[in-house]
Amino acid sequence: MKDLFAIMKVMFVEKKDIALSVLCGFIAGITAIGLFSLSGYLISKSALQPPLYTLMILVASVKLLGIISALSRYGERYFSHRGTFTMLSQLRVHIYEKIEARTPAIFRQFQSGDLLARIVGDVETMQHFFLRVCYPPVVLMLVFISTIFFTSFFSFWLTMIILAGFLFAAFLIPAYIGWKQRKIDYSVRKSRGDISTQASEFLYGFRDLKIYQRIEEKAGQLQEAAKKYEAEREREGIHKQFAESINIFFSLLISFAVLAVGAYFVTTNQLDGVFLAMFVLIALTAFENTRGMAVLPSFLEDNRQAAIRLNSIFTEEKAREWGNARLQLEKSPFIRIEDVSFRFPEETRKTLSNVSLALPPGSKTAIVGPSGSGKSTLMQLMLQIFPVYKGKVYFNEEDAIYYSQESIWENANVVLQENHFFYGTIRDNLAIAKDGLTDARMEEILAKVKLNHFQLQDRVLEKGANLSGGEKQRLAIARALLKKAPMWFLDEPTSSMDALTEEAVYRAIFEAAKEDTLLLITHRLTGLEKMDQIIVMEAGKIVETGTYTELMEKKGYFYDMKQIERSVFYHG
Amino acid sequence: MADLKALAKKEQKKMVFLALYAVLSGVAIVSQAYLLVAIIDRIFIQGTAFSEIVNLLIGLFAAIFARTIFQYQSGKTGLKMAAKVKRELRDAIVRQYSLNPVQRTIQGQTGQKISALVDVVDEVDSYFSRYIPQVFQSLIIPIIILLVIFSEHVATGIIIIITAPFIPIFMIVIGFKTKDKTEEQLEEMSRFSGAFLDTLQGLTTLKLYGQSARQKEAIRTSSIGFRNATMEVLKIAFQNSLVLEFVSMLSIGLVALEVALRMIVFQDLSFYTGFLMLMLAPEFYTKLKDLGSAFHSAKESMAAAKKLEGEFANSVQPVTWGQEKFISEKPPAIELKNVHFRYPGNEEFALSNINMKIRPLEKVAIVGATGSGKTTLLHLIAGLVPPLKGEVAVNGKLRSKYSESSWFNQLSYISQEPYLFAGTIYDNITLGSNQTVTKEEVIEAAEKAGISALAGSLPNGYDTFIGEGGRGLSGGEKQRIAIARAFLKQPSIILFDEPTTGLDLQTERFLQSSIEELAARSTLITVAHRLHTIQQADQIIFLDNGKIIASGTHEELMDINTSYRRMVTVQQGGAI
Fold first, then answer.
1. Which residues in chain B have their CB less than 8 angstroms from residue A421's CB?
2. Cα distance between residue B139 and residue A263, in whole Å
3. Smallest CA–CA separation between A32 and chain B, in Å?
4. I need a surface site. Which of A57, A79, A102, B34 has the fewest CB within 10 A?
């Protein structure tokens, strides 16, 4: 529950709509009861043949109440929805802030699965929180308090019956239903997980299953999982139906009790018979409002789950406090790493152990090595994407720990393995590089990276889905070229390009980076002759360092890798 | 298959029950009103003793109870019907998926297929669980109520008959138009949350470029902008329900006014009848209004059914098989004669006019640029996709004459990304064999494939869980699992998709030696990315744009084919 309260604090900033929804809901509820009780009284009074003017007054007030009720119902809907959308926007901004503060380190967590998509889904789920969980009980309570206040002028015992009924219908029954709901929810989620797993195994493993002749068997398992899932869904549906029926039955039962006891009181002269119909109609109408409470537990449970997940990203272990000094580089820096070791929290093996290296100002360095050898992690530590706990990173011999992350990134042209492109145009995606870029400048750079077949106004889909792998890499490089910072960090920037394009792109990079300090991770060993130094990594350690000729003459690890590469055939 | 009305027609027995429950509910509702009014009439007007109404109270309790029970039963019947339909739909979808040749599962987005099977089928639910029961309720119960009203007090009946049609008319005139608008807005909403997701996913990039603060403001303003646009649409929807509310209220008001006038001014209507009218009229309008919301959910279901139709419509030609048992003492000879293949719906790509002969125990290397059709050719040989034209012959007989299982028993396919199933390493290796195998055999196969070191480094050894939800393996490690499967199976044909990227030194060596060992007893057909493999091949098939442009040994091709020669030499040179 405390997760929900934490989310509530974020969501309920804008109070006006909340107050208006409650107010309108209350008026709508109370006037509806007024309308029906008054017509109950009206009809009873009519039987006693009163003067005509009482009838006119009553009819007029019934009409008036009806109109007020309908209008405030409208207001309630309007304000509660507007409030909900405002809250969602608060929540989105909040989530964005939280994730932003831990970016990029937190993205390691998001890599596996579609955690991010789930977060966005959870935000959408929270739209029911105010609408179905929060304010309806408040309105209900207010309506009942007023009703009970009104009825207490007529009969103590009837009031007590209504009060007891209210407690049951609004709290005890929903609590019981919610308690059962939780168990059912759990098994529904579990069986849903099963069917998804079975289905993805069946589809992703289709070729292997076919060859190993396990298609029938696996299809059977999938159908079995589907049946189980459906059985759980059916159980869930029947439970909801049951909850609803219990609620309806109970609200009718209260009206029944009011009628029975009221009738008895009339016979014992404790109640004027003219009020009997009114009481029955009060009970019938008032308890109609409790029906929403039957579905409340299931929304509450959904929201609770969503809130737990959303909070888990807020309460993740506290990120390191970064320094706040600004790194200011006039020209290309001297970068040095001293005895850095690193282990990801969830892993037992060290990703890097005791790595030291130096990048002199204006030097060009390549890191090579098999995948999983720690190349990317090393680069990300230099960029302070992950905090360095053991060892030191220096910029111009100043400990990087004093600098803010942002100021380091400001001075770096970074191309990561995964670069993001936003829904929009090529221009939009390039413009984030720097303020005040002209179209001409962008077009010039596009030509340099061989993307001149694109116009600046061409559409880019979400995640650059309409671009090929090589095009995405070139666009990312174009962005880095536009930024013109004095340090370069490139992580396999050309892995999806053909040799010719690769060559042109490298030429553009090296031309732009002539004066700059550059670090390049590459999986291809061709064209490394020009680098000032090559660092060979394996299993988190540096195994060799030197220039291309030095390493080739040494006939060590690099030489062996080169031999294998020679034999691997890339088909452009 | 996914036509909801047709599916519903099959459930006639349940429909009869739904109609029955609606009638019984109607009777219960009417009885409840009668008894309630009768009790108040006796007590208030006639002044009878309490003991005389006890029977009526019992009756009222029974009516309330019956009303709830029948409502519950109606809902439950709907749910059962929905569950049955959904079960059948899922069965049919799975059957459809499993009949398909490999091509579709590889082509189509798997995520979308999973969501069709799980979520889209779920969306069909409310048509059966809500809409159909509600239709029965909204058709039958108002008629029963109306009949009772007419029998008691014709004037009320006439007022209702005149006013009631306004409710469906208003629903149709204004309701549907805005419902479409609302749906549009809902779609807009999913697009909007898609854009939010897009921004979140791009946060690393935004931050590295120092743009994240600006983006926050963008999220806030677009969020509020979206809210305002949505409110405009919702406002219309809410106004419509306001109109409906007014219509029903006005009608009930008319009924009440007429009743009151008759009672007071003309004094020709009893309290009993008048009150009964006042009790029944609201029930009548509520049932009518309920149909509107049920109809909304039915529309969602219909949209889902439409999506499902796509899963059934896309039928592809399956691979044909025969009855004959494929037994191979020694590796078979394979021949492709004039084979053509094209993916359905993809006009551009095709394999055309493929002619090749593979002798027993031969090592064949398929080479060619990306997109030249190498993997498709491997699928054709494997019998995972059917030839569109031409024939595939094995040992001089059409492959389609052999039975599927006897053919696949002799075949191993080692892809670049072999699929690992949720289970232990041990389970994943034994998948290779159809016979029962001993633990020793499994471990021997694992050792030959170089998995023993991997297994040894893990705390649970061969019992470590891998695959979905288990420990992740690298591409090289996955291939070694697939090779272990092949060692266990000892097939006479091995199809191998070599890794396109260089692996670490140790894995490269292991891969090479274990494939060589496997090839000693089998025909080996490799989609080759290693010069070594190509040089060792007895026959190289050089593919370009879906056609074989040359075949022969490495030396032959170097001599006669310039583009082959260029491809090999470019590879040797430097790129930058």
1. 202
2. 35
3. 11
4. A57
Residues of A with Cβ-Cβ distance to B226 under 8 angstroms: 85, 89
Contacts 24+ apart (CB under 8 A), B563-572: B564/B367, B567/A571, B567/B367, B568/B531, B568/B534, B570/A499, B570/A572, B571/A566, B571/A569, B571/A570, B571/B531, B572/A566
Distance of CA B66 to the CA centre of its chain: 40
What CATH number is given to the structural domain containing B419? Answer: 3.40.50.300
Is there a single domain that holds both residue B552 and residue B413? Answer: yes
CB B534 within 8 Å of CB B528: yes
Does the beta-carbon distance from B505 to A49 stay under 8 Å? Answer: no
Contacts of B198 in chain A (CB under 8 A): 422-423, 462-463
Q: Can you spell out the DSSP letters for B379-443?
A: HHHHTSS--SEEEEEETTEEGGGB-HHHHHTTEEEE-SSPPPPSEEHHHHHHTT-SS---HHHHH
ipTM > 0.85 (yes/no): no
B43 and B181 within one domain? no
Q: Are residues B128 and B6 in the same domain?
A: yes
* Domains by residue range for chain A, with CATH: 2-314 (1.20.1560.10), 335-567 (3.40.50.300)
**Distance separating alpha carbons of residues A561 and B287, to the nearest angstrom:** 78
Give the separation between CA B57 and CA B74, rounded to whole angstroms: 26
Residues B552 and B411 in one domain: yes
User: How far is A505 from B453, CA to CA, in rounded Å?
Assistant: 41
Say whether both B138 and B148 belong to one domain: yes
pLDDT at residue B215 is higher than 70: yes
Do B76 and B148 lie in a common domain?
yes
Structural domain total, chain B: 3
Indicate whether B145 belongs to any domain.
Answer: yes
Note whether A197 contacts B422, CB cutoff 8 Å: yes
Q: CB-CB: which of B125, B129, B369 is closest to A571?
A: B369
Query: Which of B86, B220, B241 is closest, CB to CB, to A89?
Result: B220
Report d(CA A11, CA A91) in Å as an integer: 6
Please tell me which residue, A393 or B106, carries the higher pLDDT value. A393
Residue of A410, A460, A567 best to disrupt the B interface, most CBs of B under 10 A: A567
Indicate whether B467 belongs to any domain. Answer: yes
- Residues 6+ away with beta carbon under 8 Å from B230: A81, A85, B185, B188, B189
Read off the pLDDT of residues B312-358 as tens digits, 9 standing for 90 and up: 766 567 788 888 888 877 889 999 999 998 876 666 677 889 999 99
Domain membership flag for residue B349: no
One-letter amino acid at A324 equals N
Best of A11, A46, A413 to substitute, by most chain B Cβ atoms within 10 angstroms, is A46
B10 & B88 share domain: yes
pTM of the model: 0.78
Find the closest chain A residue to B75 by CA distance. Answer: A241
Does residue B46 belong to any structural domain of this protein?
Answer: yes
Sort strands B363-368 and B539-544 into parallel, antiparallel or unpaired: parallel
Helical ranges in A103-134 per DSSP H? 107-111, 115-125, 127-128
CB contact under 8 A, A263 and B39: yes
Average pLDDT over residues B457-467: 80
Contact predicate A459/A425, CB 8 Å? yes
Q: Which domain holds residue B519?
A: 362-370+403-572
